[in-house]
Description:
99 residues; mainly beta; four-stranded antiparallel sheet; 10 strands; 0% helix; 46% strand
Amino acid sequence: xxxxxxxxxxxxxEKASFVSKNSPREVYIVDEENWYVLFEDExxxxxxxxxxxxxxxxxxxxxxxxxxxxxxVWALASTSGGTNLFYSENGGYTWDKKF
Length: 99
């Protein structure tokens, strides 16, 4: 459940919810509309403040993601060859392996 406060935390209102059988690894709030939730090998995105969610393909073994903004994303993934760094310039829709 995502809650928001507009009075410095004195009161809270449910903004959106997300149901999954797994616990999230990380939650990223890029701005008021663009949010990401990373699970084990799954990344979900909303671009409308949690009203709808979309599953994005991420590099297998991703264990950490860093969003610079809603388009620029870096990901670390553990593979049989070691740890690799991936880059996306379209919000996580496609990925390029950097090393």
